[in-house]
Write the structure tokens for this entry.
Amino acid sequence: MSHILLTDNLISFGLTRQEAQIYLELLTHGEMSGYEAAKETGISRSNAYSSLSGLIEKGAARLIEGETTKYTPVPLKEFLENALRELSDKADFLLKNAPKQLVSSDGYLTIKGSLNIKNKIRVMIEETKLRLYFQASPQIISEFETELRYLVEADKKVVILTDDYKLHGAKIYKAKTEEGQVRLITDSSYVLTGEMTGNEHDTCLYSGQQNLVSVMKEALKNKIVLLEKKQ
């Protein structure tokens, strides 16, 4: 696998790029001196020693004392689990102690970027109490199959409009969908509509405004009536 991709993912766990590069070398070689780490990575010796100190501080490496000081990596699984545990503890602290939002915004919110849109869709699905209507391509729908299956298993109403898709327990309407287009309504209270093609330029509108919810509900209702007549 590409070292660049591995490095980018390690950065998500709190390492700098140079720390991640050296950590990968430590995983490859088992243990190294600062000089060896600098030589293998092409990082200057001073930056290599600084990065090794950072790895020790962040729990990704340990020091081996001897005639020559060497560094050994903490096993990847152990490092990742420790980092996730620490992050989970911090998340719990923030949820308990951060200021509470006084008023929930039911206005019109613009959500940009494919990842942000996916995250919002997941939250909407997880927070669904009674019913959900989802219109999108099979490729998009399948990305949320786990969350949708949980809704079905919890006896929530799940209605899907898409080209060709199967989910036991959900009501599926075979409908032609435009590439990247997303329509989502949850509990007749919240809507998300827009484009999700997989890049940072994707944009969706999210709202709890009842006039928009009503318009989208009526449009989906009419579409479903037409589909039922055809089927």
Remarks:
- The chain has two domains: 3-95, 108-230.
- The CA atoms of residues 112 and 203 lie 5 Å apart.
